[in-house]
Each structure stands twice: as C-alpha cells, then as structure tokens.
Design a protein that fits this description.
By secondary structure, the chain is mainly alpha-helical. It contains 24 helices and no strands. The longest helix has 65 residues. The N and C termini lie far apart (66 Å). The model has no long low-confidence stretch (mean pLDDT 80).
C-alpha cells in the first residue's frame, strides 16, 4: 500500500483520474484493516484534489473526519494538516475571519512541532487569503517567508506553488515583468526536473500575465498549450478551466464564433463534473457574447439563467455554513470531553497531593485555577465582542451588496429593454405583441432601486464620505464613485466583479485608472487612502 499511496501523491497534480483510483484503493484498504492514520492521510490527499475541483463542501466533511481521528489519537500533525485545508476552504467561501483564525492556529501548532512542510503550507494559504482581500503587501511578505523555508526543504512542489501564487499577486500589483519572470522560471524548473506538478496551471497563469500585458496572441498560445497538456493527461477539471480561459481570450480578440465553441465544450465538462461555479461563469460569458452580437433577447435569457445559477450557488453556500456550524459544534463537544478527562485527572492529582503535602499545595492549585478561569472569562468576553462586531459588519455589507446587485440588475434589464425597443421594427408583425410583453416586463422589473436612493442610505451609515470625496475630486465619474464606495465598504476585487457582472481583470483595470486619477504613488494603499474621507 505504501507504493500506491506514493503513486497517489505523484498523480495528484497531473492525472486526477489515476490519483482518484489510487486514493480509493488505499482508503478501502485502510478502513478494512482499521488503520486510522493511513485513512486520514489518504483522505487529506483526496481533499486537496477536491479543492482544486471546487468541491468545498465535501472537503469540509473530510476535514471533520480527519479532525476526529487526530483528536482520538492525539496526533497533532494530522490535526494541523486538516486545519490547513479547512482554513483554505473558508478562504474559498470568502469567510475570511474564520479562515484567518483557523490558518493562524495551524501555523502556531506547526511552529511548535517544527513541522516545516506544514509551516510552508500555512504561509502559502495565508498569503492567498490576504491576496483575496487586496492586501498584496502582506500577501507578498507571507509568500516570501514560505519561500525562505522552502529553500531548505526537499519539497520542490511547494516552492513552485509559492512562486505561482506570488506571480498572481504581482499581477494584481501591476508588476507584470516580475510575474512573467517568476512563471517562466517555474515552468523551466518543472520541465527540467520532471516534477509531478500540473504545467497546465502554470501556462494558464502565464496566459493571464500576457493578457494583462496586452499580448493576446501570446496569451492564447499559452492557454492552448495548457489545454493540450490537460487533454493529454485527461484531467477533466483542468480541461474545463483551460477551455474557459481560451474562450475568454478569443472573446477579447472578437473571435466570438470560436469562443462559443470553447465555452460550449467547457460547459459540457462543467455539467458532467457538477461544477456549478464554472457553469455560472460560462452563462455570464454567453450573455456578454449575445450582447456583443446584438442578440439582446438571447442576452436576456442567458442573464436570467445566470441569475438562477447564482442563486443556486448562494443556497449551496448556506448549506455549507450549516455544515460549518455542525462541525464547530462537534469540535466543541470533543473539546468538552477532552476537558472533562483533564479535569478528572487533575482532581485525582489534587487529592493525592493533598494527602501527601497537605493544604499548602492545595492553596497554590486553587489560586492558579482561579487565575485560569478569570483569563478564560476575559477571553470569552473578548471573543463575544469580536463576534458581535463581525456580525454587524457582515449584516451591513450584505444589505449594501444586495442593494448594489439590484441596481446592476435593473440597469442590465433597462439596457436590454431599450435595445429591444430600437430593434422592434425588425421583428415580424406576428411577434410584435410578444416583444411588447417582454419590454413591459423588463420595464416593470427595472425600476426597483436607483443609485441615488443607495447614496442616501450609504451617507446615513458613512456620514461625509461622498461629500468629502466629491469636494476633493469633483471630476470623478459615477462609475469611479461607485468603485470608491465598494472599496470603502471593504469589498474584495472578486466581490466587486460579481456585483457588477464584469471580469476580475476589468475591476483591476478600473482600480488602476482610479489610482492614477487620485494621484496615488505605488506605495500608497488605495483602500486606506479612501478610508480617510470619513474622518475629514
């Protein structure tokens, strides 16, 4: 079984189907022969594969199983490994506070046990967490800490993963040449040393860099190379992602026909894999392509399908939150049982010490226990305050996000209705009543909420922000003002892209243009700069 376990490790990033076969075989062997440690370790490999495929709920379930095995056996290494993957899942779910506490706890335990591999992974995942929150300076620092440890580690794949993630952060900072140089070195190193790491991922990221630079032909070449590698290894999720990125670049080149072909193949794979997030993204691209071709009726249909898919993903996220609460409850019960055993042992010790040393030791013990309880009470109160503040912030952010989403939806529906009016004469007379009915429906849906109404609500919560911003920068456009509001609310680039129904890259470009208009230097943080307008 050792050979098959190592085969599963080798295939993890290159041949998902083979890795899955090895994982299932080793898992069955471990369960049949009652080998819990082997069972936990093979489950962790499966969890890493599921994360890349986007199956976060199954990964969280595996983390819960691994935690139980680790607690029953007192295995801190297993516990740390499970916490790392659990924290990464919370990052993927945008539950950043929970992700930070879980990953920080794992890093502390890894440092105590001197587990270098776990420390490197912790720095990698924490760096990704800060990168998603647009704190690129902190992200770069964490990636570099991981690279320092990786220099003395035999795990070359972790070094490649760190350099890969660092390159993506450099793209967000506008350091495109550094990103390209890093990825080129990674590709060369993987090829020269024949590492079992997915070259398709590196080529897709290189395509992202070339797209950011504006070299679309080079970007398309890298994306197609990534697709060739994924297809040769029959990695279905990698094939789907490569197809989506090929379609994205072809769409940017106005090659809509070929882009549709790529997205169609990607959608078939996404549906077969059950990857709703990919399907949702492809529906959004279909709507954009339909608008570009002037097929506004089709664009409306795709937007409706996109909305239903997005709502479905939201429901799935709610289920995951319930699963998280269940996992936390199980962990709390396990902790209570552990504490009960410890208290019982302490009680026996106290009795023995009392008999042997009389009242002096008993007094010292009572004093220390009282101090410990006071500290725990203070910590509980502090955690409760932090929880309440976090809930208030999340509630405020959720209300604002819903308001902005409705405005974007209304704008899109109004544009489609207006385009249908302009094209109305081109439809057959027999279709005129249907077109009028569609326009009427769109008009009824598009008047629910205006940006002006949102500004009034925003000013009540963030008094003076818009007024101070307008006073100092009167030339800002409405789009730029909206971007300032989103950033001031603490939204990530990913959240802004989802709300505005635009690509991640479009938001990055908007942020870059806003920085230039505000006259910010490279070292100045845009979010911190905007936060000053509340206090002025």
């Amino acid at each position: 079984m050792t050979d098959k376990y190592e085969s599963a490790v080798r295939c993890l990033y290159t041949d998902e189907d083979s890795a899955s076969l090895y994982i299932n075989e080793v898992y069955d062997y471990a369960v049949l022969n009652k080998l819990p440690v082997l069972e936990a370790r093979i489950l962790l490999l499966k969890a890493e594969m599921l994360i890349y495929q986007g199956d976060v709920d199954e990964t969280l379930s595996i983390c819960s199983t691994v935690r139980k095995i680790a607690q029953n056996r007192g295995d801190r290494d297993l516990l740390v490994s499970g916490q790392l993957l659990e924290g990464y899942c919370y990052t993927d779910l945008d539950m950043f506070d929970k992700a930070y506490s879980t990953l920080s706890s794992a890093l502390n335990m890894a440092q105590q046990t001197h587990d270098t591999t776990a420390q490197i992974k912790a720095y990698l995942f924490l760096g990704i967490l800060y990168d998603l929150q647009a704190d690129t300076e902190q992200a770069v620092g964490l990636f570099k800490k991981g690279l320092e440890l990786a220099e003395h580690s035999a795990n070359a794949i972790l070094k490649i993963r760190l350099l890969n993630s660092l390159s993506i952060t450099y793209v967000r900072e506008g350091k495109l040449e550094e990103a390209r140089s890093n990825l080129s070195n990674c590709i060369r190193y993987v090829e020269d040393n024949r590492l079992t790491y997915g070259l398709d991922r590196l080529y897709i990221n290189m395509a992202l860099v070339m797209t950011s630079i504006g070299h679309l032909d080079s970007a398309l070449a890298y994306a197609r190379h990534a697709l060739d590698i994924a297809q040769s290894r029959e990695n279905r999720s990698s094939i789907a992602k490569a197809l989506i990125y090929n379609g994205h670049i072809l769409f940017l080149q106005d090659n809509i026909a070929e882009a549709k072909l790529m997205f169609g193949q990607a959608d078939s794979l996404a549906l077969a894999l059950g990857a709703k997030n990919m399907h949702c993204l492809i529906l959004e691209y279909y709507a954009e392509m339909a608008k570009a071709e002037g097929a506004f009726k089709d664009a409306y249909i795709y937007l409706e399908a996109f909305k239903q898919c997005a709502d479905s993903l939201t429901e799935r996220r709610n289920v995951l939150n319930m699963l998280r609460l269940q996992m936390e409850n199980e962990a709390a019960q396990a902790e209570m049982e552990t504490q009960y055993k410890l208290y019982r042992l302490a009680l026996i010790t106290i009795i023995i010490v009392f008999v042997l040393v009389l009242g002096a030791i008993f007094f010292v013990y009572e004093y220390r226990r009282h101090r410990r309880r006071e500290q725990e009470a203070r910590q509980d109160a502090r955690r409760e305050r932090m929880r309440l503040v976090s809930e208030l912030e999340q509630s405020d952010k959720k209300m604002v996000t819903q308001s902005i989403y409705r405005q974007k939806k209304n704008k899109d529906l109004s544009e489609i209705a207006e385009n249908l009016r302009r094209q109305r004469a081109q439809f057959k007379p027999t279709n005129q009543p249907l077109i009028d009915s569609v326009i009427s429906s769109l008009d009824s849906f598009s008047g629910e909420e205006r940006w002006e109404d949102f500004e009034i609500y925003f000013e009540r919560v963030h008094t003076g922000f818009m007024k101070n911003l307008q006073k100092k920068y009167p030339d800002l456009s409405l789009t730029e003002k909206k971007l300032c509001v989103y950033l001031h609310l603490g939204m990530t680039t990913k959240e802004i892209a989802n709300i505005q129904h635009v690509s991640f890259r479009a938001v990055e470009q908007a942020r870059y243009r806003l920085r230039k208009k505000l006259g910010l230097k490279k070292e100045e943080d845009l979010v911190n700069f905007l936060n000053r307008f509340d206090a002025e």
